[in-house]
Amino acid sequence: MYLLRCILEQLCDLTTDSGNYNVRFYSDRSALARSARALLSSVTRVLLIADTVVVKQLLTAKDRVSISLNRLENVANFTEFVKAYAIFGSEMVELAHLVSDRSNCSKDERRRAEMGSARRFLERSTMMLLTSAKACLRHPDCESAKENRDTVFIEMRRAMDSIHSVIKDSVLPQLTISAFNLDSCGHPRRSHGRSSHGHVSRYSSSNRSTPDWMIDNDDEPLTTAFNAIKRFEEWVELSRITLCKGLFRERLISAFDAFVELTQDFTDSAYTRHENREKLLLLCDRTKIELNQLLRLGICLDESGTTNPTSDLEEAILHTLRAVNDVKLQLRNTALEQADELFRLTDEFDIINQLRNTFLTGDPERLNDYVKIFSDHCDHVGEVCRLLHNVTTSETLQIYSKITENHINVFSPQVLNACFTLCAYPNSRIAKDNLEVFLDFWIILYSDVHQYVKDTRECSTGVDLSGNYANYPGNGSCSQSGSVRWPGIPNTKGAQQVQAQQSVQQQVSSQSQQTVQQQQPVILGPNGSMDPNDPTMGHGKVPGSVDLETGETDKNWPSNNASEDNDIVRRAKAMSQMALNMNQFTRGEGDLKTTQDLFTQAEFLAEEANKFYKLVRHFSYQVPSGLSKKDLLDNLDKVPTFVQQLQFTVKQPTVGKAATFTKVDNVIKEAKNLMMFVCSTVDSCINCASKFNLDMGAARARSRTLSPSGRHGEDDSGYEGMSSGMGSKSGTASSDPNI
To answer: Where is composition skewed (Basic residues) in this entry (predicted)?
Structure first.
């Protein structure tokens, strides 16, 4: 390639003569053409090889995750599960990073949306995989628990298959093979006995295994009512040229029948208002009348042999377009009205709380009633999502809404299965955790539908939404982010996380740009300027109730003097100070000066949370069994989940200023979620210490001498190893993204 470049430079060399540039003309101009072709061929070959290497790397990572998933599905005990899950976690993180990089490089909106939605589900489903597998191992005879686990495995494989199909289609096998078989001058190269059939079969579209909820033909638009109407409008516009003759009439009628058939999703819906249904039927009849008039004029023109459009034909075309546009507006209004009615008249968290309480009490008379209520509610949410899919004009939103509708249909029965598992084993903490995780995932789906409603309204004003889903973190902590935002949901116990995320998102502003200054940043952490084990850490105010704006300490926490011998409170205050520094960074205040300082601080915060978990875990061994201990463990067991989410968010690669701002938003959001449960855990520890007269200051000594392997919490027999050993320096923490 270097030689070719030198030849081109020589051929195109310009010399100076008395201030005038004279081009040296060569008699053999064909040499210039041959050199240019050879150079372009070499560049093309290099680009294709580089792209193929990236694709092969991503497919290899996907295959490793599939193998780990198969190993997870076939484990027989908790020990094997812990090892298999650790391997699966590390490989899943690698796959997520590669998919993110690849989707950011793709310029095709549909490919970005398909890969982004699959990656989002894989990240969201990791906790469902963990809890459902735990429940299945703990209760192997429970059919509902087994169905929970099997469904998660099936949907994760389906998401990976969609990534596989998108990646395979992102390289053109014909160009790749032809490029491999050209020499440096662009001439065909001999195969030397090597066959390329294996390579062709790997990237051949014939092997594509697209899930049934994805679209098979990338050249065709998605099958929605609005796309069908758009195609019908295009055929009507072509009537000016074709004059509705011959085969064109059949295609025009076929396009009309196609969009009318899709409007039946609106007219046949049980949740569509009667007046809206009547309007749709009347508008479709009006469109049919106008189309028949257009076809009659076309027949007359065909019989008369006229080759130019007449004024009557032009008027019929305009009337038909006006009628079908009225149908389009009515479809959008019907979908949005139905969505508004859903969110206005239903209290999602009230339904979930009633469902949870009913299955906890095990009242057989109320079980069937609430199962039917929840099933009807799920059908309504799925119906709204399907209608939104039909009326949005954004291809990205069409793909996301279609996949969300599929997840609603698949996982709403699994929420009930998780309820049945808890009903069968009411004292099982693992069954309760499994139900909470499935309910959290359902709330995320419900929130996604709420966001799609707002985005559909924005689409109608011409706003481009493709960037809203480009860097979606996928963990439901939206960010729904740079990406999808969380909607405003009623303030109940389950909505605390949502509101916390909303408040942090409002705080993140353009001031989070990197500002390089001469002074060194102060990063709190194990190797930073402030040691959380130092008793003087209690001298500053830190947020005890996660008030990151003011740094106020919860009044229920011990005073500074009393906290000197209290390892749990002192470490929690150190973590709160770290979180406060991170929040101040968004306003251009505090000791953190660059985004890298912020991410480093977040890593230290996750590391301290691991140590905090270990301290509280050993303190819980002193607490007698009962409601207080159960409340303490419920709060504590949430900490590893948010530590994992924080670490995962910090490790996400970013390219560009907008992506960095989104990552800063997500990191601070996850840090605040983590601190909410840290503070709740500290409050529970203080309540237990006061109630049972326990010594919280002995937690450090106990953590050095007491092995957790022989002590288990309620319903934790044999599984304690999954959540103990939280040290970050040696061993593998359960909150680490590799688990």
So the answer is: 187-200
Q: Which residue's structure tokens are 């609005």? A: 226
- Give the domain extent around 272: 225-332
Residue 656 placed within a domain:
yes
How many Å apart are CA 739 and CA 93, to the nearest integer?
A: 10
Environment class of 631 (CB within 10 Å of its CB; exposed 0-12, middle 13-18, buried 19+): middle
- The string over 634-643, giving b where at least 16 C-beta atoms fall within 10 Å of a residue's C-beta and e elsewhere, is bbbbbbbbbb
Residue 140: CB atoms within 10 A of its CB come to 10
Torsional sign, CA 264, 270, 271, 276: positive
Mean of pLDDT values over 141-169? 90
Residue closest to 90 by CA, chosen among 115, 61, 133, 70: 61
Q: C-alpha distances in angstroms, 482 versus 114, 364, 472, 602?
A: 17, 45, 6, 20
For residues 267 and 474, which has the higher predicted lDDT (pLDDT)?
A: 267
What CA–CA distance (Å, rounded) separates 207 from 226?
31
- CATH (domain of 675): 1.20.120.230
Predicted pLDDT of residue 433: 92
Q: What is the pTM of this model?
A: 0.57
What's the per-residue H, E or C state across 301-331?
HHHHCCCCCCHHHHHHHHHHHHHHHHHHHHH
Which residue do the tokens 């796309």 mark? 227
User: Residue type for 110, please?
Assistant: R
Q: Which residues contact 102 (CB under 8 A, 6 or more apart)?
A: 54, 58, 115, 167, 170
CA 627 – CA 559 distance, rounded (Å): 27
CB distance 8 to 39 below 8 Å: yes
Number of domains in the chain: 2
Residue 421 lies in a domain: no
In a domain, 55, yes or no: no
> Which of 477, 439, 519 shows the shortest CA–CA distance to 642?
477
User: For 330, how many CA atoms within 13 A lie in the half-sphere containing its CB?
Assistant: 23
Domain end call among 332, 347, 367: 332
What are the helix (H) ranges across 556-710? Answer: 567-585, 595-620, 627-636, 639-650, 657-692, 699-705
635-661 pLDDT tens trace:
888 888 888 888 888 888 777 777 788
Alpha-carbon distance of 243 to 248, in angstroms, equals 9
Strand-pairing partners, residue 16, are 21
Roughly how many angstroms between the first and final C-alpha of the chain, as a whole number?
Answer: 46
Contact status, residue 461 vs residue 172, Cβ threshold 8 Å:
no
Q: CB neighbours of 623 closer than 8 A, spacing ≥ 6? A: 629, 632, 688, 692, 694
Q: Is residue 2 part of a domain?
A: no
Domain CATH for 325? 1.20.1440
Write the DSSP symbol of residue 591.
Answer: S
Provide the residue type at 169 as one letter: D
